[in-house]
Write a structure and sequence with these properties.
This protein is of the alpha+beta class and 207 residues long. The chain has a single domain, classed as tt1808, chain A (Alpha-Beta Complex), CATH 3.90.1570. Helix content is 39%, strand content 24%.
Length: 207
């Protein structure tokens, strides 16, 4: 099935039985943005029209935060609209996903995917989480390590929600984050990228 075939968390549960909970699993962390970064975000906010395309929010709000975080974690690879597939069972092109950065010749350039990001198109978080959770399950199956946490983000560009999948338990973080508190959002993204790095190391040690 394609990731986009799943329209809600409940539809994902129907095919992949999961325990769904809500808890605050993310810490309180902040990372102050640079003046130039904030200038770009404020410019985009100022120039935004009342009706904008999905690409506008992805290009001017989601991408800058992903790129800024990636700069601090060069051992990772951020893939944009790259095919991700677990056999023929789950397939599609996530808006973004994060994996180990491939080094040298490899039959699997995607490596270990650990974080999936889906845009909440038309601010539809129900649809966004259906797609994102199916992407997270594909990541889990590709890694073949259900004990390793897979993270997911659904974002409108302005509002960011975070989830975590371990074994068969999908947790939604109680707190959501917003570009109007950029230090908190950057802090959370930096934390998630750091967790991806730690788990890549853990998987390499337990091969």
């Amino acid at each position: 099935m394609k990731f986009s075939d799943f329209k809600s968390v409940e539809e994902v549960q129907a095919k992949y039985p999961l325990v769904v909970i809500q808890e605050q699993f993310l810490p309180t962390v902040e990372l102050s943005p640079s003046a130039s970064f904030m200038e770009d975000i404020q410019f985009a906010l100022t120039m935004r029209d009342s009706v904008e395309s999905e690409m506008f929010f992805r290009e001017y709000f989601i991408a800058p935060f992903m790129r800024q975080t990636w700069k601090r974690h060069p051992s990772l690879k951020v893939w944009v609209n790259r095919k991700l597939a677990y056999q023929d069972e789950l397939t599609g092109e996530p808006d973004y996903f994060v994996s180990a950065r491939p080094i040298g010749a490899t039959p699997n350039p995607v490596g270990q995917p650990l974080l999936a990001v889906a845009e909440a198109k038309q601010e539809d978080f129900i649809l966004g989480w259906g797609q994102c959770l199916s992407e997270m399950i594909a990541c889990q199956k590709i890694n073949a390590r259900p004990d390793i946490a897979i993270y997911g983000i659904v974002s409108t560009g302005e509002l960011w929600q975070v989830g975590r999948l371990i074994q068969n338990v999908f947790a939604r973080n109680l707190m959501a984050y917003t570009i109007y508190e950029p230090a908190k959002l950057l802090g959370i993204l930096d934390y998630l990228f750091a967790m991806c790095e730690k788990q890549i190391v853990a998987m390499s040690l337990n091969k």
